[in-house]
Structure formats: C-alpha cells, structure tokens
C-alpha cells in the first residue's frame, strides 16, 4: 500500500485523526519484477546467441586461413542503386592480408581504391553492375608469378579469390616448347610420335588435376558465401563440414600430384634394406580393420608372420597401403583379401616374393586396366587417368603411382579386373637386390 496521510485537529487544537489516500501498488510491482526477469532472460539468450555466432565466425576464419588461395569480400558503397563508387573490405583470410603485409584487423574497412589499381576497381564495378562472374589469368608486373583471379557478385558486394598458378602455367609453357622442338625435327619419326603421346597424356593429366582443384576451391568459396544466408547453427555446421572435406581433398590431390611428379622426374631412388615383409603387411592389415568395419566390409589376410626380404621398405609399404585403402574405399559390399608368400623358383631364377590384393568392388574401366598392364601406350584424345577420374571407378593417378613404384623396385605388377566383379593386383618383387 502507498499512503499519503496528514494529521487533523479541532478548532480547539485537539488531535482528531488523519486524512489522506492509499493506493494498492502490488500489481505494479509484480509486473515490474516480471518485466525485469523477462529482460534478463532475453539478455542471456542474446549473449549465448552472440557467443555461438562468434564461435562460428572463428571457425569460418580458420577454414579461410587454411586455404592457399587469397580470399576477400568487399561491400559496395553506392552513390545510386547498382552504381558503386567504391568497395569496403569486410572480411579476408590470412593469405590476403599477407599479400598486403598488414594484419586483417587493419585491412578491415579499407576501401578498394586504396588497395587495388584503377583497372582492377573498374572490373569490380563491372561485375557488380552486370552480376557476370569474372575470371582471368595474368602475370604480375615485375614478378615471374602468375595469378588466377575470380570475382563474383554476392548480394551487396563482391567476393574475390586469387590463386598462384605459376607451376601450372610453367608446365603449360614447357609443354608448348617441347611440342615446338619436336615438330621442328625431321629425324627420329618414331621417337617424335612417342614423345607427342607422352606430352598429350601429361597435359590431359595436368588439365584434369587443375580443373579438379579449381572446382574444389569454387565449392569452398561458394560455401563461404552461403554462410551469410544460413539461419540455424545446424545448417552452418553442415556447410563448415563440407568446406573442411573439400580442403582435405585439395591437400590429398596436391600430395598425389607431387608424388607422381617426383617419380616421373627420377627424383625417387631405391634404398634397399633388410626388413620383415610379413610383419609389415600384418601391421598394415590390422591398422586398416577399423576402416573395413566402419563400411561393413571384411578384410582377410593370410601369409607367414615373418618373411625376411631385402628391399625398399618405405616404397613397398606405399604400394600395399595404396592398394588396400583404395580397395576398401571403392568396395561397397563384400570385402578385401590380402595374401603374401615367398616364391620357390628354378635354380637359375632369382628368388622372389609376392603379395596379392583382391576385392569385390566395381572393377576398373577397360582403358585404365589396359594402360596399367602396359598393353597400350595411349588411347584416343583422353588419357586413362582422365577417364578414371570421371567415371566413378577410382583414382587413376594413385594406380599410376603404384605402377611407377613397381618399376623402381624392379617388381612385376599384373592387374585383372571385371566390371562389377572386383579387381586383383598381383605384385612380384625380388627377394634381394644383390
């Protein structure tokens, strides 16, 4: 109760009582307390939501920073609708900030007019006005470095991606020079034809590999822009998972390209040592069991627990591991068998040992199978590596790495396969190199 009372007196000055008013403020106090509690609850919800957004932003920044490409998003500054006068940097990754030798915190908010030359700014305005994506490859002024630049309009701004493609361009230039030298010669006609086929195969492989890399980077950039439109944390987590898978795929592709390049150039050398091949293969199969169990496949292996051989232990492990993991990866039902043993031959024959890996997978395409077995040198305008990468039967480059390693080990590899009925790899290796 709220009281407002005053004392009352008679004409003689005697106290007669109080006069005043009272108001019941219980309802007002209750409503005020409920309002305060409601505000506190909403404040806590906003704080938690802001914390989740901060964690998501940090995860996104980590994904962006792990990319070898330079990535940035600029918001348009419009004088009139659809007529930007400049662009302001909103977000960038670590590669972009290192290109300008400034931390991302200093670059944020900077206008494009202070970062890029006039022609570059005009191209940004053109993409924004027309919504037409832009892609170009150019040589940096004063530097032997090639950059691929992509610009895409996204709502109120421009997403920019730049990737160093110097190695790709140098490979193309080297291929062009080699073809010119070969075509200018009138001698060694058979050698000329063989070299042309080699260059075409290598060129197809490089084009396919860089096309796949560009596609993966496109998925990453597209997913980055999609995050701005995601409403729930679950949707954002799915996009982040997709971006991480593509980054892992890019890393795997780059490593395979480097391995194949080293083998082709002769950089890989043979380093024979004495080791236990039985223990090596047993350990490899045991370590691959979780992958087989995860896919509901069996992985059976059979062979002596101890098999002393002389050879390059690292390269033999690479061969076996590549074949076992590839078989598990592309087999959908059934499983994989691995067997090894020493081979007792004639007195004149060199001692050998072998291992066989067979699966119940989809099998290999006929052109790739013929190429691996050495039955053909080249087929058509498309290399078996390219075909293997596009028909869903597996990664051709991985099998060609195995083939090159076998050649280095002076090993014999024979592959048999039937469409829909699985593949069998038979590797015969010298027991020693004395």
Automatic annotation (TrEMBL):
GO terms for molecular function: phosphorelay sensor kinase activity. It is an enzyme of class 2 (transferase). Residues 208-433 form the Histidine kinase domain. InterPro entries: HATPase_C_sf, HATPase_dom, His_kinase_dom, HisK_dim/P_dom, HisK_dim/P_sf, PAS-like_dom_sf, Sig_transdc_His_kin-like_C. It holds the Pfam family HisKA. Its EC number is 2.7.13.3. It comes from the Bacteria. This is histidine kinase. It comes from Dyadobacter sediminis. The lineage of its organism: Bacteria, Pseudomonadati, Bacteroidota, Cytophagia, Cytophagales.
């Amino acid at each position: 109760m709220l009281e407002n009372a005053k004392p009352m007196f008679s004409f003689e000055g005697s106290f007669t009582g109080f006069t005043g008013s009272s108001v019941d403020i219980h309802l007002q106090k209750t409503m005020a307390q409920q309002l305060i509690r409601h505000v506190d609850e909403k404040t806590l919800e906003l704080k938690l939501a802001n914390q989740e957004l901060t964690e998501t932003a940090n995860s996104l920044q980590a994904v962006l920073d792990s990319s070898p490409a330079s990535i940035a998003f600029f918001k348009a500054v419009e004088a009139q609708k659809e007529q930007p006068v400049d662009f302001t940097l909103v977000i960038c990754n670590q590669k972009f900030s290192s290109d300008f030798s400034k931390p991302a915190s200093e670059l944020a908010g900077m206008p494009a007019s202070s970062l890029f030359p006039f022609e570059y700014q005009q191209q940004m305005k053109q993409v924004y006005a027309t919504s037409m994506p832009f892609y170009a490859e150019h040589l940096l002024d004063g530097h032997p470095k090639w950059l691929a630049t992509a610009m895409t309009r996204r709502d109120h701004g421009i997403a920019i991606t730049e990737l160093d493609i110097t190695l790709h361009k140098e490979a193309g230039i080297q291929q062009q020079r080699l073809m010119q030298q070969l075509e200018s010669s009138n001698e060694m006609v058979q050698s000329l034809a063989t070299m042309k086929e080699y260059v075409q195969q290598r060129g197809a492989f490089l084009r396919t590999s860089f096309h796949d890399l560009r596609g993966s980077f496109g998925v990453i950039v597209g997913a980055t822009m999609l995050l701005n439109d995601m409403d729930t944390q679950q949707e954002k987590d799915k996009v982040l998972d997709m971006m991480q898978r593509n980054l892992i795929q890019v890393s795997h592709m780059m490593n395979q390209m480097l391995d194949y390049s080293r083998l082709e150039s002769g950089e890989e050398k043979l380093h024979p040592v004495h080791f236990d091949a039985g223990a090596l293969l047993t350990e490899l199969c045991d370590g691959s069991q979780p992958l087989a169990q995860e896919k509901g496949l069996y992985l059976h292996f059979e062979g002596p627990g101890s098999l002393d051989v002389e050879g390059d232990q690292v390269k033999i492990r690479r061969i076996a591991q590549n074949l076992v993991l590839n078989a598990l990866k592309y087999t959908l039902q059934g499983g994989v068998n691995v067997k090894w043993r020493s081979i007792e031959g004639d007195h004149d024959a060199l001692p050998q040992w072998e291992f066989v890996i067979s699966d119940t997978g989809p099998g290999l395409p006929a052109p790739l199978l013929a190429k691996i077995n050495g039955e053909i040198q080249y087929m058509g305008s498309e290399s078996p590596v390219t075909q293997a990468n596009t028909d869903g039967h597996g990664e051709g480059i991985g099998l060609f790495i195995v083939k090159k390693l076998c050649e280095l080990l002076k090993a014999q590899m024979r592959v048999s396969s039937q469409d829909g009925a699985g593949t069998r790899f038979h590797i015969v290796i010298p027991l020693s190199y004395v």
